[in-house]
Amino acid sequence: MKFTITLKNRIIRFIFLLILSCIYQQRIIAQNITGKITDEKLAPIEFVNVVLLNSADSSFVDGVVSDSEGKFSMPAHNGIQKYILSISYVGYKTTTRKIVSADLGNIVLHEEAKALNEVVVRGHRPIIKREIDRLVFNVGNTPYQKGNTIMDLLRMTPLLKVTDNAISIIGKSNVRVMFNGKISYLDNSDIIQYLKSLQSDDVISIEVITTPPAKYEAGGNGGMINIITRNRKDIGLDGNVGVSYTQRSYAGISSNASVNYRSAKSFLSFKVRQSKSQGTVDEAYQILQDRSGQNSVTSRKDTYDNIGGNMTFEHQITPLATIGLVYDFNRGDDNLDIRNKYNYYSNSKLDSLLNTSSTQIGKTISHTLNLYYDLKLDSLGKKLGIAANYMSHTPDKEVNFTTLNEQTNNKYIVREPNNIRYSIYTGEANLELPFKSFKLETGAKYSRVINKSDMQYYNLNDKEYVADIKRCNIFNYREQTLAGYISAYKSLGAYFSVQAGLRYEHTFVKGVTPNNSSQDVKTNYGHIFPTLYFTYKPSELIDIHLNYARRINRPYFRALNPFKWYTNPNNVDQGNPALRPSFVDNIELAYVFKNNLSVTAYFQKENDAYGQSLNISDDKTTYSTYENIYNNRQLGLNVSYSLNPFEWWNISLAGNYIYNKSKIKKADYIPQNGGSFDYKCCNTISFGKDRRFQFFLNYSQNLAYKVGTTYDKSYADCSAGLKYSLMHNNLVINLYANDLFKQDLVKREKFAITNTQIYHNYYDSRYLRLSAVYSWGKTKVKYQKKNVSFNERNRL
């Protein structure tokens, strides 16, 4: 505890000194000349040329273009009175402005008196843009933006591999999803359903962050996806409403609606979402041993009912200070009806057959609150941001199963109620310090995670449920993390730029199992996580990037919790409180040509990778737990290309090759090494001059893949769709069919010295979806990109 207090004091002292340095730097004479460019109706104008000239001889000093809000900013040294501004844009009169103050306020451009007939000038952002630490996919320049879901957009995004149930980045799983810089508050399964329910119309771009910089949490190796959405700039109301009908083996429906209001200083948004779905799951599982084996066949019907809401409020207290809050509520009710047959064999003869009927009834309620305060420290762009986050998550579930042994006619009737409580608290402060020759970012964060689990096991004896103490479990888990980071960015001449960062995280872990003190865990560890980004841009057509980042992959909470989860009396899943985190080094070399061809070579080294292991006792009871099994080396190459053979036809191509080499740390397992290739081809054909009617045809395939002790066989997905826009694109109707040929199957094998596990599963991924979305209110928009991170939520 003494170490914790000392480390806290050091971080606070470090931040205090940086703030003093920031205040001192304000004494520099340099000022930023700022303003906003609008037309005569006061609508902002983007891409306006703003040129700073010397007032004595009109010589060029500096130049910028206005952003999506019409705003611009440029430094002026040695007194602003020595300069004049020249402002020009096609179709408008050039304006010259004498500078009398640093903030020029609103500058109105007037249209040329003589207009050109039949001439349309369009400014387009590139489809693919490579920034120093991320790849940006500008959705607004593609035909996919209107009338689809965000999940559909992710399928088209370079570097991403998306199936109906998972998202990964060039071979990395456990991807974190952000909206406008805010980490999602939903778990992995819920976020997939959430993305399917959200319409794509307000998405501006998707940022793929394969090697997150020092500002972000070092935890997790899956990378990040940041979805940038629009937010109105006009004072007043707007909103949208959408509904979707999906037919799988059973029908499902989802809907969502939002209302947004903006005043001169405030923004308020309300969003609601709802979904009901049903699907079937077929699972076949085998365990093969020398003289014995086990065979399981499961048929399952899943029913999900979710409802959620979100409120966002932001208010500008002063021209320099802004406060805001985001509150999110989600409730999920699920009901799994399961039928299982489990056979046990010895010497090719049937020993016993267990028939199990079970239900899993779950209720998950989560509340998330984010509070933030932003303060501009000067006119040069120095900012201080303070944020606090709280999350409460209660995934309660009760499992009831009845198992009949066909040979002995013994019947086991069991009830397994479990109560789980997660509470997460975080607080952080971040400083952005742009100077004349470089930009500095620094900050500190404290997080606390509390997990309380109470797992019970009751047998039915003489019409009364009696607790089986040996199979009950209580687990209390505490985790605290102190973190601090510093990052610097600098341009090195006209062609080169570099960004480097260091992040330090120290974690204190304590897990207590009251019924079994031998399973208690108490540890702490601290590590430094460096990041480095190097960019070379020899021309407007070429970008070359070299990135390095070190990450930590902390186990999720269920993998640490030593509770025993029974699917029948002889099959047990159990966490491992002694499980260690794995550490990962990532190196990437990326090349972008003409903003539509992207080539990325990458190397990943992971030590102490963990996964599930299987042990079989003499009485044939199977115990599945988690262990640090192997070290892995991964080498890959990803290529994506977007082209338009004709104006009405857009093609997006992507291919990814990975080679994995795993070194097993435990003698019980067999490594699976080798290469794999996956690809996708997405076609969009538009009809009519205004492209109101579109046809989609997409195909992707993942060839056999090996990593660690696992071998995944090939699977594929073919999808097609139609989209029709009405009422000036305010109403969009979409018909979409997924997995037309039922190729999205899970065929997996896991290899150990004593056994081989074989899986053959299907998760009802073939479906037909009909959706409609209607938008109302004005459509002029601006970016909203407030960074409020809450990464700890992703480990649930």
UniProtKB/TrEMBL annotation:
InterPro entries: Beta-barrel_TonB_sf, CarboxyPept-like_regulatory, OMP_b-brl_3. It holds the Pfam family CarbopepD_reg_2. The keyword Membrane applies. Residues 376-774 form the Outer membrane protein beta-barrel domain. The keyword Membrane applies. Keywords: Cell outer membrane, Membrane, Receptor. It is found in: Cell outer membrane. This is TonB-dependent receptor. The lineage of its organism: Bacteria, Pseudomonadati, Bacteroidota, Bacteroidia, Bacteroidales.
